[in-house]
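Hi support team,

I've been running sequence recovery on a batch of backbones for a student project. Most finish fine, but this one hangs at about 90% for roughly twenty minutes before it completes. I'm not sure whether the input is malformed or the queue is just slow. I've pasted the structure tokens below so you can try to reproduce it. Let me know if you need the job ID as well.

Thanks,
M.K.
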């Protein structure tokens, strides 16, 4: 599992480690790792032009010492000093190696630009001259390597309040920073390379975490020899209406592809007919009244995709939520809950899967504020509503109680298409029915859904049904051994 930490957590670990080491050791370790990544990116170091953007803090020192190492290998290295002060020993080492101090005009001709303007303690918008230097670096032809985090990115949250460096590679020291995994910070970090400087034993519990394929492999349920369709998990799906009949088809498809032993669909005639036509495997119950009392036994429910928000839908939602099994609420179900939070007063677990607009309605917040501070709002929602929250978006995040927020690392921009969220509901719901907790079902469901999106798109547009069809391939990709 990839774990990440806030700036305060990193600084605390650094102070504990530095107390046991000779002065300057951590900076030398960081500079060595940074220089190695830069050399690999350049391919040939001798004769290449490298410009360092040097601020007043330790990131500037890292950049200067890395520049010294590149200069000794024959690179032309110039430092643009932006801060009120400069790391004296680092600058001296650079000059002794043949480097020089240059003005900002050198940025335009650089083959490589090392961003050491501000460190992990910075927050808020970049001030001048930092903001201008960041924009000039972004406009230059050279590749940008950021030290620790791109300047302009809040290391603890991923917020970007103004100008920010857009790095091709970010070389982060000691441990991943939260802001490198969460948009908008993640979007400007490029490829993230971790340099081990010895912090591991001094780090606290992580702020956020990201599942790897191996983690998902470990968590996914597998049928045994004694399994039957009931033991493998029965999922109920209450979705679709006269207007959005396809939502029911997509949610049921995601559930069937996600490994549920049986899917029971309950709904009105129009979506029920569509589900029967597309998925003969599903057990369909046509509801004359908005109640699931006689649908049959299930281990979990998916509630809401395309359901509508009229009185009938509200009564059906109340019936589903009156059960004693986990319920995943999405789409129209979230609108119903936003209008009547009393629906959430239940003992059994609840997983909600909103996008930013839906979460804004639930929290009476502004959508733009949620997009700018996804971690803050997903944590607030989990605490305020007493549920597990999967917040969809460019960075999908999962929050539950005081546990580390999980950040999903799979996906593709092609998933921004109608109906793909319905498929996600079905996949995560199937995992709930198979016995995973809301926290794990949401995290694994998002991972598999994102991976299925990549496989289905393969660099081209996709439809939601393509994502459902690709879910088994995604599961195969992360599963090291069959049942």
């Amino acid at each position: 599992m990839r774990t990440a930490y806030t700036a305060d957590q990193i600084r605390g670990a650094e102070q504990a480690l530095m107390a046991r080491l000779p002065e300057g050791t951590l900076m030398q370790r960081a500079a060595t790792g940074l220089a190695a990544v830069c050399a690999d990116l350049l391919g040939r170091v001798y004769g290449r032009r490298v410009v360092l953007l040097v601020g007043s803090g330790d990131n500037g020192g890292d950049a200067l010492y890395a520049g010294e190492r590149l200069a000794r290998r024959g690179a032309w290295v110039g430092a643009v000093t932006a801060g009120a002060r400069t790391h004296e020993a680092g600058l001296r080492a650079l000059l002794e190696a043949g480097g020089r101090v240059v003005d900002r005009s050198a940025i335009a001709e650089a083959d490589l630009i090392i961003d050491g303007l501000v460190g992990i303690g910075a927050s808020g918008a970049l001030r001048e001259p930092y903001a201008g230097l960041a924009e000039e670096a972004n406009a230059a032809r050279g590749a940008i390597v950021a030290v620790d985090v791109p300047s302009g990115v809040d290391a603890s949250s991923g917020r970007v309040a103004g100008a920010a460096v857009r790095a091709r590679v970010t070389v982060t020291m000691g441990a991943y920073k939260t802001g490198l995994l969460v948009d908008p910070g993640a979007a400007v970090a490029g490829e993230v390379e971790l340099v081990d400087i010895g912090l591991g034993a001094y780090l606290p519990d992580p702020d956020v975490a990201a599942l790897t394929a191996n983690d998902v492999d470990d968590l996914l349920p597998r049928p045994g020899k004694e399994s039957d369709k009931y033991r493998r998990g029965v999922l109920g799906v209450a979705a679709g209406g006269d207007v959005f009949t396809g939502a029911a088809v997509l949610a049921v498809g995601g559930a069937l592809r996600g490994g549920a032993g049986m899917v029971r669909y309950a709904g009105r005639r129009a979506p029920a007919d569509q589900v029967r036509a597309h998925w003969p495997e599903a057990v369909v119950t046509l509801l004359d009244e908005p109640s699931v009392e006689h649908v049959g036994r299930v281990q979990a429910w998916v509630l809401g995709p395309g359901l509508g928000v009229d009185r009938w839908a509200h009564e059906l939602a109340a019936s589903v939520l009156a059960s004693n099994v986990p319920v995943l609420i999405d789409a129209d179900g979230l609108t119903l809950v936003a209008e009547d939070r009393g629906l959430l007063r239940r003992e059994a677990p609840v997983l909600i899967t909103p996008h930013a607009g839906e979460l804004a309605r639930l929290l009476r917040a502004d959508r733009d504020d949620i997009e700018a501070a996804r971690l803050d709002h997903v944590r607030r929602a989990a605490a305020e509503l007493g549920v597990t929250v999967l917040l969809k978006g460019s960075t999908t995040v999962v929050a539950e109680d005081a546990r580390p927020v999980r950040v999903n690392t799979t996906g593709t921009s092609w998933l921004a298409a109608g109906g793909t969220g319905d498929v996600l509901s079905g996949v995560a719901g199937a995992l709930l029915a198979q016995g995973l907790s809301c926290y794990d079902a949401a995290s694994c469901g998002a991972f598999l859904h994102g991976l299925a999106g990549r496989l289905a798109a393969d660099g081209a547009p996709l439809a939601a049904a393509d994502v459902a069809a690709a879910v088994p391939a995604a599961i195969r990709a992360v599963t090291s051994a069959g049942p």
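--
Follow-up from support: It reproduced on our side and the slowdown came from queue contention, not your input. The chain is about 40% helix and 15% strand. No action needed from you.
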